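I would like you to sit down with the pair of lines that follows and say whether tokens and residues agree.
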Amino acid sequence: MKRLALTLVTALVASGAIAHGHPGPVDDSMPDAQRIRFCERVRDHALQAFYNRDKGRPMKLFDEDGGDGARITNHIIRRIYEEPQISSPKKAETFGRATCNMKRLVRCM
């Protein structure tokens, strides 16, 4: 009986650790490696904006220099502060990643 319980607990812990959802390492030879890394950084900024908003801190925007990076990141930060529907870190991550991918895709067309 103890062995069965130990096996079940081990299986649950292992499945939780394996299915955590982090992307694997990105090979630099991939054509989309820069876009993937950029969207990971934007996702991190979206999470930070969510935590700042929850703690009542003011919005921190980047100085726009004409490039896409600051423009996309600022757009995501503004939307996180404006949208009460973004109510969890997971929703902030998803919004940041989806917006980044969509903005980068539209720019390439």
